[in-house]
Specification:
Largest sheet: 5 strands, antiparallel
Radius of gyration: 31 Å
Shape: extended
Distance between the termini: 57 Å
Helix content: 40-55%
């Protein structure tokens, strides 16, 4: 097919593609469509498949031309972008939009244009000279002791609390709760049955620990809570919500003694409590190292994005916002549609939530674009030997058999993620060579990880 095409970049990472198809090709395409219809359509007075094309066109010409036009547009767009690069090709989750109403006439050249979103092409001129600050954090004895308490809690014996006993921090409560409207009636789609959580330990959107503490099994309480403007769950920030909470069951943890026997119960590899402590310290230090590396890399990307601003296609932002919405629904243990109804009941809406999320979402997406562009521009590659070496490091850090790690990465998708991680870290190492990394504010381990969440 004789096709002329012309790509023209637009604002906000959009592309205009104009296509011209010669009259001969348009006519051939249309005749093929006519023959396809003629082979299957039934018209009184003619056997199936024997309808003359001129009769078929007289009777159904307008509808057939419309179908032919749509098929021709789709086919030629697909062909036109097949060999285009990602800066000219439509994003996978976008639809090309037809410009105007093109004239389809088998006796003429066919010209049409579409617009669509493409991968953003940033002009990355400033990539060095940044000062990156990371917090000054170390693992202390208090951190080891806190982890030991967590080990005790995980190995605790769970028993029912005595009848009439009040709920305390550390107890395991099973609740039924719901929101109430102004008349004290249950708000639709807000009820939860059998919600189990540890008081004062587990987080939840409503902050139930403060409500449940002091309640007894079988007790029901109605209360009103006003959530601060900077509340973690944005859809509830600044709102006042009435709740009805019933304690259906109440259990307590009987903690084991902190001794060699506990260490041995945790794992066969521990002979003494000191072995367990040493392993906890090592794991905390590895987690700290990994988290500081992530924060340092994120700070570097943020600096690059600020110094090299560019626009994102709207569809890319919307897809990410919708993904965050689904994640929030999962945290509320509901569906995205029901979450929207829940928000409406609390006086908020999806659009307002998306608006509050947008700045951080754009920052995240721009960072991803920068990483992808620079890895491609610098031709950063990973050999099979590089991947094997990284797997060996992972096994050593985790204290597991290297063969187990290799089995995990035998999955092609997992292997692909590993390779991408190696490429990214090599990129960061290259970029950080031209930057200054310095220690910032002194923080405790708990403060640092709390701030990260």
């Amino acid at each position: 097919m004789n096709v002329e095409k012309q790509f023209a970049p637009l604002e906000k990472s959009r592309m205009r593609l104009e296509i011209k198809i010669s009259q001969a090709d348009v006519s051939d395409f249309y005749q093929n469509v006519l023959r396809k219809y003629a082979a299957s359509i039934q018209i009184p007075g003619f056997r199936k498949g024997k309808v003359p094309l001129n009769i078929l066109e007289q009777k159904y010409g307008e509808a057939i031309r419309k179908d032919a036009e749509g098929d021709l547009i789709n086919e030629t767009i697909e062909e036109a972008v097949k060999d285009a690069d990602k800066y000219e090709r439509p994003l996978a989750y976008t639809q090309a939009e037809l410009e105007g109403t093109p004239e389809f006439d088998p006796g003429k050249d066919f010209v049409f244009a579409v617009t669509y979103d493409v991968f953003p092409k940033a002009d990355l001129k400033t990539l060095e000279g940044f000062t990156i600050e990371v917090p000054d954090v170390s693992v202390e004895d208090a951190d080891i002791n806190r982890e030991l308490e967590a080990v005790r809690e995980r190995n605790a014996l769970v028993t029912d609390k005595e009848e009439g006993a009040a709920a305390e921090t550390g107890d395991i409560a099973t609740l039924r709760y719901c929101e109430l409207d102004a008349d004290g009636k249950e708000t639709e789609n807000t009820a939860r049955e059998g919600f189990v959580f540890t008081i004062g330990k587990d987080s939840d959107p409503y902050g139930l620990s403060g409500i449940v503490t002091g309640m007894k099994k079988g007790e029901t309480k109605e209360t009103e809570k006003t959530y601060p403007e900077d509340y973690e769950y944005k859809i509830m920030a600044g709102k006042t919500i009435r709740l009805r909470v019933t304690v259906e069951a109440l259990k307590k943890n009987e903690l084991p003694a902190l001794d060699d026997e506990l260490a041995q119960d945790v794992s066969e590899k521990y002979k003494t409590l000191e072995d367990l402590k040493n392993d906890i310290r090592r794991n905390l230090e590895l987690s700290l190292e990994d988290r500081i590396t992530v924060q340092r890399n994120n700070a570097l990307l943020e600096s690059i994005v600020q110094a090299n601003d560019f626009e994102l296609p709207e569809s890319m932002v919307n897809v990410e916002l919708e993904a965050r919405w689904r994640t929030l629904a999962d945290r509320f243990r509901t569906t995205p549609d029901k979450l929207e109804k829940l928000m409406a009941a609390t006086g908020s809406d999806k659009a307002a939530t998306f608006a509050s999320w947008r700045p951080d979402t754009e920052k995240l997406l721009k960072s991803r674009v920068v990483v992808e562009m620079l890895i491609e521009a610098r031709n950063i590659t990973v050999t099979p030997e590089d991947a094997d070496g990284e797997m060996a490091k992972i096994a050593e850090k985790a204290g597991v058999d290297p063969e187990e790690v290799k089995k995990h990465y035998a999955d092609p998708r997992a292997k692909e993620y590993l390779i991408d991680d190696i490429k990214e870290q090599r990129l960061y190492d290259q970029l950080l060579e031209k930057c200054t990394v310095k220690k910032g504010k002194k923080q405790t381990y708990e403060e640092f990880f709390g701030a990260e969440h």
